[in-house]
Amino acid sequence: MPAALDALASLRERWRASVTPVPLVAPVPTPWRGVRVRLAETWQLFPQSALDAVIPCPAVSRIPGTRPFVMGVASWQGGLIPVLSGECLFGLADAPGPARGYALVVRRRGFHFALTTAELRGPLTLAKEAFTESIPPTAPRAEWCSGSVEFGGQVLAVVDIDRLLSDPRLSDTVLPRPCSEESLS
Predict the structure, then answer these.
(1) With contact defined as beta carbons under 8 Å apart, do 34 and 128 qualify?
(2) Per the domain annotation, does 177 fall within a domain?
(3) Within a domain: 6
(4) How many domains are there within the chain?
(5) What confidence score (pLDDT) does residue 183 get?
(6) What are the DSSP calls for the chain, one per residue?
(7) What is the DSSP pairing of strand 111-117 with strand 79-85?
(8) In a domain? residue 127
(9) How far apart are the first and last CA of the chain?
């Protein structure tokens, strides 16, 4: 028995002597990926992780009685998807114009919609270290932004889809009924 233990100890020592230690590798930082979108005459960044797809603007069927930022519904991947006007939602226009450009399809638990934009650039890959938590004053909806990054000589706001979805304006898209004299009496 002692011979077997000595042989095992000898084998263990030879193995330690022959194995070279594995060098420690620094973890590779994961870059931020997204698209640059022009909304309300301002370039903003949308994270790629928040987008399901970027598609050409689909044909939209208007829904009567909805708020101005709701353009209607469109057929997409065999189902219907609500289409929201990016220009109206971000405060540039009072009423949506014709669907043109692109639609950013966002899919979150309990909410699936497309947001129109006339212009987009991307995809972009940036270092996460370049981002700051300050929000530029030019951002049309600062409450929906999670920070900013300098890109191409401009400071671009980063839109946080979860903040956008938590806005109470999106939870009720029905136009308020005008108050009539009969309802007051």
Answers:
(1) no
(2) no
(3) no
(4) 1
(5) 43
(6) -HHHHHHHHHHHHHHHHHPPPPPP-PPPPPPEEEEEEEETTEEEEEEGGGEEEEEEPPP-B--TTB-TTEEEEEEETTEEEEEEEHHHHTTS-SS-----SEEEEEEETTEEEEEEESEEEEEEEE-GGGEES---TT-TTGGGEEEEEEETTEEEEEE-HHHHHTSHHHH--BPPPPPPHHHH-
(7) parallel
(8) yes
(9) 103
- The CATH number that applies at residue 40 is 2.40.50.180
Query: Would you tell me how many other CB atoms lie within 10 Å of the CB of residue 132?
Result: 13
| pLDDT recorded at residue 185 | 42
d(CA 10, CA 6): 6
pLDDT at 175: 64
Query: What burial letters (b/e) apply to 21-50, b meaning 16+ CB within 10 Å?
Result: eeeeeeeeeeebebbbbbbbebbbbbbeeb
> Quick one: pLDDT at residue 177?
60
pLDDT at residue 138, rounded to an integer: 63
User: Average pLDDT per run of 10 along the chain, which is 185 residues long?
Assistant: 83 81 79 83 84 87 84 86 83 65 83 85 81 70 78 81 80 61 44
Structural domain range at position 154 = 32-169
Q: In the prediction, which pLDDT does 93 show?
A: 61
The type of residue at 178 is P
Residue 102 lies in a domain: yes
